[in-house]
Amino acid sequence: MQGSNHLLWIYRVYVGLFFLYLVAPLLAAGAFAFNDSTFPSLPWRGFTLDWFISDTEPKLGLLNDEPLLRGMWNSFYIGMIVAALSVAAGTCNAFLFVRKDFPFKSAFYVLMVVPLVIPGVILGISILVLASMIANFADSQFGLFLTWLRPGVPLIVLGQFSFLTTITSLVIAARLQKFDISLEEAALNLGASRLRVLTTVALPFLFPALFSAFIVAFLVSFENFNTTLMLVGSDAPLTITMYDRMVKVGSTPVLNAVSVVLMVGSGLLALLSVVAQRSPKSD
Amino acid sequence: MSRDAGRLSLILLFAPFALWIGLLIILPQIGIGYISLREKVGINEYEFGFKNYADFAQAAVYRNTLFRTAWISILVTMLALVLGFPISYYIAKIARERSRAALFLMCLIPLWVSDLVRAYGWIVLLRETGVVSTALVSMGVINEPIEMLYNDVTVIIGLVYTVILFMIVPLVSTMQGMDDSLLEAGFNLGGSRLTVFRRIVVPYAMPGIVAGCIIVFMITAGSYLTPVLLGGKNSSWFTEQIYNQFITRYNWEAGATFGVLLLLFTSLVVWLGLRLTGQSLATTVAKDT
Amino acid sequence: MNDLSCVGVTKKFGEFTAVRNVSLEVPPGSFFSILGPSGCGKTTLMRMIAGFETPSAGDIRIKGESVINLAPNKRNVKMVFQHLALFPMMNVGENIAYGLRCQGEQKSEIPEKVRKVLDRVGLPGVEDKRIEQLSGGQKQRIAIARCMVLQPDVLLLDEPLGALDLKLREHMKIELKQLQERFETTFLYITHDQSEALVMSDQVAVMNAGGFEQIGSPRALYDDPVSGFVAGFVGDANVLPGTIDEVRGGEARVILDGGGAVLARLADDSNTGDRVEIFVRPEALRIGGDNGSGSLSGKVDSLLFNGAASRILVRLDTGQLVEVADGDQASEVSAHDAVTVSWQPDRARVFVRRPGA
C-alpha cells in the first residue's frame, strides 16, 4: 500500500495523544502530592513528603489524618469481607452453571449477568429500600430493632456483594470451563474421595482464577462509590470520606497523597492478578 | 455418582445463587417498584397509584434531567466508540507482539484507579487555578486564568475518559481473534481500505462493539461522581436527583420512582441495542469480564 | 476365577441404548481388547467398569466380586485416560504418589514405591520433572506407572495411543505389550484401530452398535469372522455385493451386482435369493488363472508400491475397484494390462448384506 507510511505516522500520533489523555489526570493527581504548597496547583514550590508524613497543620499528612486513615481501614476490611464472600458465591455459581444441568438454565444465566447492567446507584437504593422495609416491619410487628438493616457496614457489604458476585462468577466460570473433567475422574479412579478430588485437583486448577477474582473484587469494592453512597452509615469507607472532604474542604494536597497511595496500591494488586492469571501454563 | 448425590449437590449449589439473586437483586427491585407506586397522604398513611409517575411527567425539571442524562450518555457512548475504535485496532492489529501487551496493560491501568481519583485529576488540571489555566497564562496565551470546570464539554470529556476503557477492552479482545489473512484476503480481492473496514473489520468486531456500547452506556447513565464533580451544582444528572430525593429530602417515593424510570430507560436502550444488532446479553456483556 | 467378568450389562441413556446385553470374561494376566468404531458403546462400557456410569441392567464382577454398588474410588480397577489426565499442577513423582496417598500408604514408603515403578516403566529418576517437560511417549508411561503402582486387578486403557503420531504409535504398541507382560496384570484395552487390537491382544471383542459381534483371538477374527461387520472391520477386505444363485454344500454361487458369477464359502445362514456380500482378503486374490472361484476380468488400474504391503489395484469390468496383495506379481503386470482375478472358494466368505451397504 503506497502512501500508507504517512497515514501510519498520523495514526501513531493519534495513539500517542490518546495515551497522553489517559495519563494526564493521573499524573496531575499524583504529582501535586509532592508539591510543597497548600494548594494542589502550579507553581511548583519544591519536593516534599509532608503531605504523607507531616504531623502538623496546615500540612497535616495522610499518615496523621485520622478520618482518612479510618476510611482506609473501613474500606480495607469491607473489601476483604466482600471479596471473600463474592469469591465463595462465585465459585458455587461457576460449578452450578458449568457442571450442572437444570431447567431454565439459560434464563438463570441471564439473571446472573443482570446485576452488571443495573446502575450502581439503583442497586444501592433498592437494597436500602428493601432492608428498611424489613427492618420497619420487624420493628412494628415484633418490636425488634434490626440495626444491621439500617445504613452501615453490613448493608454496604450486601450492596457491593450483589454485583461483585457476577464478576467473580464470570471469572471463575471461564477457568472452570477449561478444566478437563477427566482429571477429576482420574483422581477418583486413583482412589481419592470427593472432597480430596476437590481440594487436590479442582481447586488448585481454579486457584489462579480464584486469586484474581478476589483481587478484582477487593479493588472494585475498595473503589466503589455509587452503591456505597446510598448505603453508608457512620463508618464511611475511604471513597466517601474523600468525597466529603472534596465537597466540604475543597481540594487539598492530602487528597493527592491518598490518590498516590491508591494508584500505587491498586497498580500493584492489578499486576499481581495479571501475573497469577498468566503464570500457570497448565491450561 | 448416584442420582441422589447429583440432586443434592445441585440443590446445594443452587441455594446460594437463588438467595443472592432473589434477596439482593429481584426483591429489592420489586421493593422500589412498590414504593414508587405508593403516595404519602398522611403520617403512615399511603395510597397506591401512579401519582408519583404523573408528578414526574409534569415537573419539567425532572423530565429535562432525564432527557439530558439520556442524550449525554448516548453522545458519550458514540464518542467512546469513535475515539476508542482506532486505538483498539492499533493495539489488536498494528502494534507489534511485544508492545501490544504493554499498550493493553497501559490501557488497563486507569481502569484500576478509582473514579474519584480520576475525576480529582481532572479538577486539578482544569479548574481556574489549575495546571492548564496557569500554564496557559504563564505562556502568555491567555491573560487571565479561566475556569474550565462546570460546563457540559468538561463533563463529556470526563465521562468519555471514565468509560472509554470499557469500550477498548471488549473491542481489543474481539479483534485480536480476527485472522490477519481475512484482511489480506479482503485487499487481495481488490477491496479498498474503506470496503475492507466496512465489510470485514466492522462485522467481525460487532460483538465487541455491542458489548462495549452497552457497558459504556450503562456506566455513563448510572454514573454519579464525574458529572457531579466536574459539572458542579448545575450538572442536572439523573442519579444526582435520585440521591437528592432519597438522602437529602428523604422523599423515598419520588426517589424510587426516579430509580424505576432510570432502570426502565437504560434497560430499554440496552434491549433496543441488542435487538438491532441481533446479539444477546449472555454472549456480549458476559464474555469479556 | 477371572479378573473381570461382565454379565448381561446394559446401559440406556433415556431412549438410547448405548450398551446392549454385553457379557465378557477376561482371564487373569491377559491382554483383552474391545475393538469397535466410534460411538459403538465401548467407552460407555469401560466407564461402567471404572464406575463412572451405572449399568441399567447386568452385573460387573472383579475377581468374582460384584462391584455394581461400589463407588469409583473404591474399585481396584485403574484407568489410563484417552488424554492421559496427568495432573498438570503436580510433578511426575506427585502424580504417581497420588493414589498411594489416597490409600493412606505410609509416608516413608511412598518414595521407594514411586522409584520402583518408574524403574519398571523404564524412566528412572524423573520424579521431579514437570508433566509438560515429558515427551508424548514418556507421558504415556507415566500414566501407566501411576496406575500400576497401585497394583490394580485390571488396568483399563481408553485409546491412549490416539493422540500420538504414527511412528510413536507403532513403537508404543510393542512397548505396551511388553509392559503388560512385565507387570503380569490384566489389561483391558479400548480402541477403534484394528491394527492396535490385533498386534497387542490375546483376545479381542469386536463391538458394534452397543453389542459384541464376536470375541476371539486376533487370528480367529481375521481368518474366521462370524459376520460381515467383523470381516469388514478387522483387516482389509474386498467387498463384492451380489445375490445367491445356488447353495451347494458349504459353498454358494453368487451372481455379482455388476454381472459375473463366482463361488465362495457360505459363512452364515443365507440362502438362495438372499442379497449378500462376498469378503475376500487382498492376499487371497490371485491375478490370472482360475482357482476354482470362477474368474473376474478387469484392467490393472495402478500399482501401489509399499514394500511388503504393496498392492495392485484392479478395475473389474463391473466397475468395482479391488485390491490384490502384491507378493511377487508386480513384475508381471503393468498399468492398463487386461487381467483376470480369482480366488480359492474357501478363502472368500459370503455374509448377508450389512444394513446400509
Automatic annotation (TrEMBL), chain A:
<keyword id="KW-0813">Transport</keyword>
<keyword id="KW-0472">Membrane</keyword>
<comment type="similarity">
    <text>Belongs to the binding-protein-dependent transport system permease family. CysTW subfamily.</text>
</comment>
<dbReference type="Pfam" id="PF00528">
    <property type="entry name" value="BPD_transp_1"/>
</dbReference>
<feature type="transmembrane region" description="Helical">
    <location>
        <begin position="108"/>
        <end position="135"/>
    </location>
</feature>
<dbReference type="GO" id="GO:0005886">
    <property type="term" value="C:plasma membrane"/>
</dbReference>
<dbReference type="InterPro" id="IPR000515">
    <property type="entry name" value="MetI-like"/>
</dbReference>
<keyword id="KW-1003">Cell membrane</keyword>
<feature type="transmembrane region" description="Helical">
    <location>
        <begin position="197"/>
        <end position="222"/>
    </location>
</feature>
<dbReference type="InterPro" id="IPR035906">
    <property type="entry name" value="MetI-like_sf"/>
</dbReference>
<keyword id="KW-0812">Transmembrane</keyword>
<keyword id="KW-1133">Transmembrane helix</keyword>
<feature type="transmembrane region" description="Helical">
    <location>
        <begin position="254"/>
        <end position="276"/>
    </location>
</feature>
<feature type="transmembrane region" description="Helical">
    <location>
        <begin position="155"/>
        <end position="176"/>
    </location>
</feature>
<feature type="transmembrane region" description="Helical">
    <location>
        <begin position="12"/>
        <end position="34"/>
    </location>
</feature>
UniProtKB/TrEMBL annotation, chain B:
<dbReference type="InterPro" id="IPR000515">
    <property type="entry name" value="MetI-like"/>
</dbReference>
<keyword id="KW-0812">Transmembrane</keyword>
<dbReference type="InterPro" id="IPR035906">
    <property type="entry name" value="MetI-like_sf"/>
</dbReference>
<feature type="transmembrane region" description="Helical">
    <location>
        <begin position="254"/>
        <end position="274"/>
    </location>
</feature>
<dbReference type="Pfam" id="PF00528">
    <property type="entry name" value="BPD_transp_1"/>
</dbReference>
<dbReference type="GO" id="GO:0005886">
    <property type="term" value="C:plasma membrane"/>
</dbReference>
<feature type="transmembrane region" description="Helical">
    <location>
        <begin position="70"/>
        <end position="91"/>
    </location>
</feature>
<keyword id="KW-1003">Cell membrane</keyword>
<dbReference type="GO" id="GO:0055085">
    <property type="term" value="P:transmembrane transport"/>
</dbReference>
<feature type="transmembrane region" description="Helical">
    <location>
        <begin position="201"/>
        <end position="225"/>
    </location>
</feature>
<feature type="transmembrane region" description="Helical">
    <location>
        <begin position="12"/>
        <end position="37"/>
    </location>
</feature>
<comment type="similarity">
    <text>Belongs to the binding-protein-dependent transport system permease family. CysTW subfamily.</text>
</comment>
<feature type="transmembrane region" description="Helical">
    <location>
        <begin position="103"/>
        <end position="123"/>
    </location>
</feature>
<feature type="domain" description="ABC transmembrane type-1">
    <location>
        <begin position="66"/>
        <end position="273"/>
    </location>
</feature>
<keyword id="KW-0813">Transport</keyword>
TrEMBL record, chain C:
<protein>
    <submittedName>
        <fullName>Spermidine/putrescine transport system ATP-binding protein</fullName>
    </submittedName>
</protein>
<dbReference type="InterPro" id="IPR003439">
    <property type="entry name" value="ABC_transporter-like_ATP-bd"/>
</dbReference>
<dbReference type="InterPro" id="IPR008995">
    <property type="entry name" value="Mo/tungstate-bd_C_term_dom"/>
</dbReference>
<dbReference type="GO" id="GO:0016887">
    <property type="term" value="F:ATP hydrolysis activity"/>
</dbReference>
<keyword id="KW-0067">ATP-binding</keyword>
<dbReference type="Pfam" id="PF00005">
    <property type="entry name" value="ABC_tran"/>
</dbReference>
<dbReference type="InterPro" id="IPR017871">
    <property type="entry name" value="ABC_transporter-like_CS"/>
</dbReference>
<dbReference type="GO" id="GO:0043190">
    <property type="term" value="C:ATP-binding cassette (ABC) transporter complex"/>
</dbReference>
<dbReference type="InterPro" id="IPR012340">
    <property type="entry name" value="NA-bd_OB-fold"/>
</dbReference>
<keyword id="KW-0813">Transport</keyword>
<dbReference type="GO" id="GO:0005524">
    <property type="term" value="F:ATP binding"/>
</dbReference>
<dbReference type="InterPro" id="IPR013611">
    <property type="entry name" value="Transp-assoc_OB_typ2"/>
</dbReference>
<dbReference type="GO" id="GO:0022857">
    <property type="term" value="F:transmembrane transporter activity"/>
</dbReference>
<dbReference type="Pfam" id="PF08402">
    <property type="entry name" value="TOBE_2"/>
</dbReference>
<dbReference type="InterPro" id="IPR003593">
    <property type="entry name" value="AAA+_ATPase"/>
</dbReference>
